[in-house]
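Consortium newsletter contribution from the modelling node. Members have asked for a concrete example of what our holo predictions look like. Here is one, prepared for the zinc ion complex that several groups have been discussing at recent meetings.
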Amino acid sequence: MQHSVFSSDILNFWCAVCGRGYKNKCTLNRHLRFECNKEPQFECNICDYKAKQKSTLKAHMIKHSREQERAGGHRISSQKTC
Ligand SMILES: [Zn+2]
Ligand SMILES: [Zn+2]
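And here is the predicted structure:
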């Protein structure tokens, strides 16, 4: 049995731009590529809200669905096309 030498709580790499800490360089690079100083790439299709992370947008969308419930919802009547 080998003990892995992960020191999981120690952050070794710091983003020079926003100051966030990361455990390894890969994660930091990913942050720099996809998160840091990036335009939000997840757009709400109901309003003009934009999120940098999918989970953030998801949380935002829940808000919309609650609003719709409160408003009674737009009933989409299934129209026959012929
Ligand atoms: Zn950053
Ligand atoms: Zn929205």
